[in-house]
Design brief:
By secondary structure, the chain is α/β, with parallel strands linked by helices. It contains eleven helices and 13 strands. The longest helix is centred in the first third of the chain and has 14 residues. 45% of the residues are buried. Keywords: Signal.
C-alpha cells in the first residue's frame, strides 16, 4: 500500500461518527477473525454511509481500522486502480477504458438523486430545465428574473473529477455550459456549507445531503425527494459505486458484504439513499 500517497490526500476521516438513531449492527461474526487497515477514497456522497458502517465494524472488531477520504469519483477510481486504496468510491459508473485499464470490479449499492439547491431564505422553489441551463450558462444572472430578489445569482459547481458534477452536467444541463464565473467547491458537504451561507447562491448536491440548511428546488414541477428518485419521476439521479481492483478480498470483501447485508442496507436508507443490490 502506498501510504505516502494516501497521506497526501486532502482529508482523511477516521470513522468514529455515530450511526443514525435506531440503526445498530453486530458484525463480530464477520470481522472477529480479521485485523489490519482498510483504506477507502473517492466520491464524497458516499462518506456518510462509509463512516457509519465503519463505526459499527470497528466497534465489533477493535483490531480493524478503516480510513475514509473524499477527493471525488475520478480520484477514487484512479487510486483504487493504482493500488493506493482498497476501495475507490464513485458517483458514476467507471468508464469502459477505466475498467479495462485497472481491471475494476464494480459494486453498485445505492441510487442517489442530485438536487438543485439554494439558501432556505430564497423564495425561488422551482425551475424549468431551460431556466437552469440559462442560469449556469450565465445568460440568466439575476434572481429577479426568476421571481426572487433583485440580486446577482452566485453559481456553485464541482470540479471535473466529481461524479455529482458529471450527472448534473449530463442530466440537468444536457451537457450545456457551466459559466467560468462559477465558484468551485470540493465536496457535497462543502457545497451544502456554501449554499447555507449564501442567500443568493445556487448549486447542486446529493439528495442524501439535503437538510434544513438548504432548500432543494423542484425541476419541471418534480421535487428532489427519495420517493421521486425511487419512482424515476425525478430524473437527475445516478448509482453509487464502490470499486475494487479485481475481485475484493480480505477486509475489502468483508466490508462490501456488510454493506449489502440487511444492517448495511438500513444504514444506506437512514443516510438518505435508496439501497440496491448489485
Amino acid at each position: 500500500m502506498k501510504r505516502t500517497h494516501l497521506m497526501l490526500m486532502a482529508l482523511i476521516f477516521w470513522a468514529i461518527t455515530p450511526v443514525a438513531p435506531g440503526v445498530q449492527a453486530d458484525f463480530r461474526d464477520t470481522f472477529g477473525a480479521l485485523d489490519g487497515e482498510l483504506t477507502i477514497s473517492g466520491g464524497t456522497a458516499h462518506i456518510p454511509v462509509m463512516k457509519a458502517l465503519a463505526t459499527q465494524v470497528m466497534k465489533a472488531s477493535p483490531q480493524v481500522r478503516i480510513s475514509i477520504a473524499g477527493g471525488g469519483s475520478g480520484l477514487g477510481i484512479k487510486q483504487v486502480g493504482e493500488g493506493i486504496v482498497a476501495i475507490g468510491n464513485s458517483g458514476r459508473s467507471p468508464k469502459k477504458e477505466e475498467i479495462d485499464r485497472y481491471g475494476l470490479v464494480l459494486h453498485r449499492w445505492a441510487v442517489d438523486g442530485v438536487a438543485i439547491a439554494v439558501h432556505p431564505d430564497n423564495p425561488v422553489r422551482a425551475l424549468s430545465f431551460s431556466q437552469l441551463r440559462a442560469v449556469y450558462a450565465g445568460t440568466l444572472s439575476n434572481w429577479k428574473e426568476l421571481g426572487g430578489p433583485d440580486r446577482t445569482i452566485n453559481l456553485y459547481t464541482r470540479d471535473a473529477s466529481s461524479g455529482t458534477r458529471s450527472v448534473f452536467w449530463k442530466k440537468a444541463l444536457s451537457k450545456g455550459e457551466i459559466h467560468a464565473k462559477a465558484n468551485f467547491v470540493k465536496s457535497n458537504g462543502a457545497m451544502k456549507s456554501a449554499l447555507a451561507g449564501d442567500p443568493y447562491g445556487i448549486g447542486y448536491l446529493s439528495v442524501g445531503h439535503l437538510d434544513a440548511s438548504v432548500a432543494g428546488l423542484a425541476i419541471e414541477g418534480v421535487s428532489p425527494t427519495l420517493e421521486n428518485v425511487k419512482s424515476g419521476t425525478y430524473i437527475i439521479a445516478r448509482g453509487l459505486y464502490s470499486n475494487t481492483k479485481g475481485e475484493a478480498t480480505g477486509l475489502a470483501r468483508a466490508f462490501l458484504d456488510a454493506l449489502y447485508s440487511p444492517e448495511g442496507q438500513k444504514i444506506i436508507a437512514a443516510k438518505g439513499f435508496i439501497p440496491v443490490k448489485g
